Amino acid sequence: VTRVLSGIQPTGNLHLGNLLGAILRWVRMQDEAPCLFFLADLHSLSDFIPAETRRAQVRAMAAALIASGIDPARSTLFAQSDVPAHAELCWILNGTARMGWLSRMTQWKDKSGKNKEGASVALFDYPVLQAADILLYRPSHVPVGEDQKQHIELTRDIAIKFNQDTGTETFAIPEPFVGGGVSARVMSLRDGSAKMSKSDPSDMSRINLVDSDDEIAAKIRKARTDPDPLPGDPELLAGRPEARNLVGILAAVTGESETAILARFEGQGFGAFKPALAEALMTLIAPIRARYTELERDTATLDRLLDKGAEDAAALAAPTLLAAKRALGLSRH
Ligand code: TYM
Hints:
binds ligand 1; globular; Trp-tRNA-ligase_bac-type; aminoacyl-trna synthetase; single chain
């Protein structure tokens, strides 16, 4: 690991899927290499959000990341829109990316649905901006949840074509870095076939960083399950998506193996399992929530940290942007 980069959209609350799939892994990687983490506020332009709301969301997400353990003294934490190189490289890569590649992106197909005519151009172009985010910094690792894997593969395709077209090695080819087990794709508490997501209309489908202990307990109590007792072997959870998800979440949160957990609950129903899961989630979330509540109020400190982060990120991004311009004859110097 030589450099780590990843981002998160600042819209909505941080939830357990973000934490297990991305943020807590980012936190651990800070011990291994220099890290850059950013708030993808340019990506959030694919939907209209009033100015005041967006400003508040960016600060709130910065506070949530710091509360979760991202250390701005060690890692570069910044807002995407504060570093103009992202938008600039996106436009440059628009010349490389193909319509067909973008049309095949599952996120575009899901989010635009039947209304392609009414979708914003930004929603379609979203993966090209993401490619720019990544390629600017030449990261060795891009830690993400499984849902982002396709975007990283597209980033590779764009980088390879750009290098080939220009006969240069302007971009390093990035690798997606997805976690193991249930963390890679935490599922909804209401439907074991849908991923946990901030856009799910039901708040009961996810555990949020801001949920109180009572809310966490209620959400786990009401989480969908099946009537069968728990097996002793994780293999036997196949075909039981809700059970697999809950057991996997407990394993990810406590650091135990699924086998060790099932050894304790074999033959018992969810009535015995759920209180243990709720307890483990409260232990994880409560201290993060407390720090978040504290930090979120201090907008002056957050702004100062984000300004410093943007300055550092801009310096790291500049050489790659210049190399890309030179490779295309955009710079006469
Ligand atoms: P976003 O904001 O949707 O999610 C942030 C991170 O959380 C992960 N994640 C999950 N992991 C496991 N289970 C889930 N249910 C779950 N839900 C979300 C995501 O995989 C992601 O790692 N396009 C990106 C933001 C982005 C980005 C980038 C990421 C913009 N540019 C460059 C990496 C590199 C997004 O919308 O993530």
